[in-house]
Amino acid sequence: MKKPQLGMSARKTVGNTVYHIFMVTLSVIMIYPFVWSLLSSFKSSEQLYGGNPLDLWPRPFTMENYERLFQVLPFDKFTINSVFLSVAMPLCMIAVASLTAYALTRLEFRGRNILFLAFIATMMIPSHVTLIPNYKIVVDMKLINTYAALFLTNMFTGANAFNIFFFRQFFLSIPKDLENAAIIDGCTRLGVFFRIVLPNAKPAIATTAILSFRSVWNAFLWPMLVINDYDKLTLTVGLKYLKEWEPNWAVLLAGASLSIVPIVIVFLIFQKQFMASTMNSGFGGK
After folding, report:
1. Residue 279: pLDDT band by 50, 70, 90 thresholds?
2. Domain assignment present for 33
3. Domain CATH code at residue 268
4. Is 233 left (phi over 0), alpha (psi -120 to 50) or beta?
5. From the CA atom positions of the chain, what is the Rg in Å?
């Protein structure tokens, strides 16, 4: 006798079920460490060290770790510094990258493609290779212990090359007819950029804003080298000093949670634009 075979719809259902179970399991494995860190920051030291590590819920729920966090070091100042840099610096990076990408996309001049390839080539150079030359330049310009050193290295080095590439690919997907119509109506090239191109590039702006925010917020090595004043330190550099001053892991988890939450909030705010940009950014452009 022949064995009964599953129908096409039944096999599709089984396949979708297995796929979703696998993806949910993978998501739980990836999310669990972050949830554990966040909830453990509200646990007492006794529960953290002596309790069941699989018991997520704090018993009792305490804010002592966060109070201790702000007592050991000025983390309120560190957080303000990180928020300022993570907002102001991406704005400057986006301004430079979008203008550069628009020039490389719409303006006809000799060596345009070579210049674009030069920008892309900087993405292939590890940042550690240019660390000493950049530091020497900053020292010669007397910018040590200033935020200008952070702004310049992020705006005009390989750190901004991806944003230029991303904006260029998105601009290639915008029809030229919109710009030509505006030019015929008397709009200048700069007016076309601000009134036509940028309003249609909101998904690309949101994506680069998220990526730049994450990059600046998580930056550690370069800020640690060029910033020496406690009042100017960022949150990630402050966590390094926290580990030296505070042995309690519950307090360290409180500091780590404080550094993770803003990135999650920014992504949740811009997630629709982020997904729209990744789907329609025109990476097939020439």
Report:
1. low
2. no
3. 1.10.3720.10
4. beta
5. 24
Total count of domains within the chain: 1
Q: How far apart are CA 157 and CA 272, in angstroms?
A: 29
- Per-residue confidence (pLDDT) for residue 286, from 0 to 100: 44
Question: Is pLDDT above 50 for 156?
Answer: yes
pTM, two decimal places: 0.80
In this structure, is residue 31 part of a structural domain? Answer: no
Residue 8 lies in a domain: no
Residue 280 — pLDDT band, cuts 50, 70, 90?
low
Residue-range definition of the domain harbouring residue 102: 73-280
